[in-house]
Amino acid sequence: MNRAVAVAATGLCSGAGATLEASADAAFAGADALAKISLFESPKHGGKFVSVADGIAVKRGRSRCTEMMFAALGEALAKFDISKIAPERVFVYAGTSIGGIFETENMLAENKKNGTENLAALAGYECSTLAELAAKKCGARGECAAFSTACSSSSLALAEACNAIVSEQCDAAVVVGIDALSRITVNGFGSLLLLSQGKCRPFDKDRDGINLGEAAGAAILCADGFLGGAKPKAYIAGWARTCDAYHATAPSPDGAGAARAFENALDCAGVAPEKISYYNAHGTATKGNDSAEGAALRKIFGGKIPPVSSLKRVFGHTLGASGIVNAIVSAEAMERSLIPPNAGFENFDESTGVHPAESAKNAEVENVLSVSLGFGGNNGAVVLSRERPQTKPRNGGKRIFVYGGAVLSNGGIYPDGELLAGESPLKTRKFAHLQKMGLQAAKDVLAQAKPLACKNRTAVCWGTGLGMTSQTRAFVENVLEKREAEPMPTAFTNSVHNAVPSAIAVREKFGGLNGAVTAKEISFEAALAQALREIKSGGADAAVVCAGDEYCSLAADFLKTSKYSENDGSNLSDFAAAYYVGAKGSAESAPLFEILDCDIRRLPASDKSECDAIEKILKRHNIAFGDVKRWLSPAPCNAYQRKRLAGIAEKSGIGAFDSPFEKYGGNYCVSAAAFAECAGGGAEICALYTISSTSMRAFTLFKKL
């Protein structure tokens, strides 16, 4: 019997309630707790309504996101004993658009006010920090990464967990979605003229924009054979991720990209459109989103749209948390046999064609289509079912090949003038430096590979440690310096981690999964793992797998005082790389490599245990240690990593790891140069072994052809 993904337990902390029960009660009552901004001073937007999670006491060294996440995760863990599942078989995925940015904003404000240079808050800035903290709290030792694709972040995390479970890479996954209120989001959406002047009215004819909110949701998913006799809250029967490939922020007006996500999720679930009991909408209450979402619904359901409601009036738009918030409330709708109302709706709008539920409705909720839609036309959809689905095989054992590669690096700051040279300035003027690097690398690799795969079945999987740091910093510092008086809409749209992959998708019209994965030094491997799962599961035929980070002076200054790294920041650099990866026949060009495995786990305590784990992976492919002719690893960043690498090399008998990456400078993503470093010469087996600064490790096995 194929595996089914069960929702074992959930937790929720939001502005509508500190617990799942309180938050859900508010959702089904259509009650809101929207109030004017008080979390920070906002000279321009102080009169706008937001939803703030009250009662969040932030402990020293932690963030609002962390505290909310711990509240939701603690609630879920109290309901399901995950310790009964082997820790290395538990994966952790976080979905967040901004991570610890609020504390970074406060840090920059204090430094500006006092003339100081305290950078301690940067320790919690990275989105991947939330995934690491969640893994530590639940004792998980499997793969751990964060997905940052703006408002669809936690939907992509949920789908990734489902792919990992059904492919038997893990037995359970802890998925968290979190975002806190911040200056950058308030002023960013304000600069795009998307904030409501009052309280939002999703799908209403007179809607005028969003109210921002903060929340954290947690879901423990497992293969249903690991429930231990417990009854699941629901099953995740289907899931899908697509991209409009239309615009950096605006959704495609015809809803085509979102409709493909809905259709693919329904097909994955084996559920016909007429069997959907309830559609849990993204419904932001902006003119563009609600009209496009309505168009997508009509494409799938025709004139028989199921009961619809948006939860945005209750929770506010919780950005990266919105996908998991919707999924959790959808599971509650099944348990309560109750469809929540679309609070704030009064007047039907023909442009949407959607008349949402005006009040709570008693119903036998059997199947729910729950969605979230983000910047870059990034769409995520899941189908939740009351009964165990008739599951289909999702891992056909496809062989995956690398058809071309490109690396951009000079070991320092890469000349901006050399990127996208010869292209019209009108087409490139709005791109930030890291976007240009990613676009250039993608352009180079696609020219080499000559893709044949269907564009709507081509994914873009981007790995990055820090994301668009220059744009984020410029926007926040402008807000503080100009006291919110000078909008910077382009900097805001370019500040999200998925600005690079969405730009690639828009340019190349790639309508498959569009991901931005962050996991410190193994960000490239996390993106590669995502691409491999998506292709093997049947969600895509090929992918542009790319990775990169840009030089950041704040990171360089932070490293000077870091206790965990020997890098003093002096060699930080720009870096980007891209590869075209796909099943057989995905490209005109001959394949350069075959990817045999990409395994990501927490590094065990003993070198022998790690050698045993590597040997087990090798044996899956009938390979011995001696058959691997080249072992690559980025240079260690501290004495602990150096000791571990030396110990593993000694215990395994491989001698030493080759580290040809120094010429690329100091960058989270330099491991992405591994394929390029192994190009040329005869056929042989190669291995890339990367240890992150959080003691995660990635082992990538590939065969040079």
As a percent range, the share of strand residues is: 15-25%
Structural class from helices and strands? alpha/beta
Global Rg:
24 Å
The helix content, as a percent range, equals 25-40%
The first-to-last residue Cα distance is 36 Å
Mean pLDDT: 95
Number of helices: 20
Total number of β-strand segments? 23
Low-confidence regions: none
Largest sheet: 19 strands, mixed
Characterize the overall form.
Answer: globular
Oligomerization category of the chains in this entry: single chain
Give a written overview of the molecule.
- Helix content is 32%, strand content 21%.
- The protein has a 19-stranded mixed β-sheet, with helices on both faces. A two-stranded antiparallel sheet has the order 2-3.
- A hairpin with a 4-residue loop joins strand 22 (684-691) and strand 23 (696-704).
- The longest helix has 17 residues, at 433-449.
What labels describe this entry?
705 residues; alpha/beta; 19-stranded mixed sheet; single chain; two-stranded antiparallel ribbon; 20 helices; 32% helix; globular
